[in-house]
Specification:
Number of helices: 7
Mean pLDDT: 80
Helix content: 40-55%
Strand order of the largest sheet: 3-4-6-5
Strand content: 5-15%
Distance between the termini: 63 Å
């Protein structure tokens, strides 16, 4: 294939990939289930300096609906709380006291590579009930003796409807961008083919169509997976509402730690 055409197609692929990656990032920030990527927008301000969350804390997925944040620098505890609260005010925070081991009942460490099977992530999870056994931090607890437990907000009917609309809207926006990239570059490629009198014109067009379908399918898959998450979270909410004793929630942020 002509080098210029190959370069043009590579550029198209990068653009489409960028839009689908952006869609996935936006979906992660809807915070239906726990996702470390949701903390990427968090900015921690300290004495005129700004830090990303990974610079000042370690983050681990506790289970499908909870994340743990371990401050690397205890003196930044309140600023980490403030930064996360600004980015995600919907998170429910509990400050837990004590040294929580990242090892679950199967002695798997959160930092170990995941096994290549569908049960590995489930085996690493720690339930909300187990966290409830860990005492909440007292108001005079030393910062170095605590860690932060964040729980995703419940998905009731109103939130389910809002999330569903948002997921479909973000997908539609992504598809508009993919369509625009395809249409714009289709014209460019036709011009390049005609000007260079290239014989494999049909191959180039087929490559563009295949590329478009690939990223469209990827966007569709991201949308469908997020809609499934919404349905699961809504079902969980209804089950928790009907059986509160089996699904004790995590208490909210303790006032004693407010700045």
């Amino acid at each position: 294939m002509n080098t210029l055409l190959y370069t043009q197609l590579s550029d198209v692929s990068q653009q489409m990939n960028g839009y689908t990656v952006l869609l996935g990032f936006k979906y992660s920030n809807l915070c239906i289930k726990s996702d470390v990527a949701a903390l990427m927008p968090v900015v921690i301000d300290d004495d005129g300096m700004s830090y990303d969350i990974e610079e000042v804390a370690d983050v681990a997925i506790a289970n499908e609906y909870q994340m743990i944040v371990y401050p690397k620098y205890p003196e930044l505890l309140h600023k980490i709380i403030a930064g996360i609260a600004e980015a995600h005010p919907e998170f429910k925070l509990t400050i837990k006291q004590g040294k929580f081991s990242r090892v679950d009942h199967k002695n798997k460490d959160y930092d170990e590579p995941e096994e290549d099977n569908e049960n590995s992530q489930q085996n690493m999870q720690v339930s909300a009930e187990e966290f409830n056994k860990i005492p909440d931090a007292s108001t005079d607890a030393a910062p170095e003796s605590v860690f932060l437990l964040y729980t995703m907000p419940d998905v009731d009917k109103d939130r389910r409807d809002l999330l569903t609309t948002t997921v479909k809207s973000l997908h539609a926006e992504c598809m508009l961008r993919l369509d625009a990239v395809c249409a714009r570059n289709s014209e460019v490629l036709v011009t390049m083919i005609n000007s260079a009198n290239i014989e494999d014109a049909n191959t180039v067009k087929d490559d563009l169509e295949r590329m478009y379908k690939e990223f469209k399918n990827r966007a569709d898959s991201l949308r469908d997976e997020k809609l499934r998450e919404i349905d699961e979270a809504y079902a969980r909410y209804n089950l928790k509402k009907n059986k509160p004793k089996e699904y004790d929630g995590v208490s909210s942020f303790r006032p004693g730690y407010e700045e």
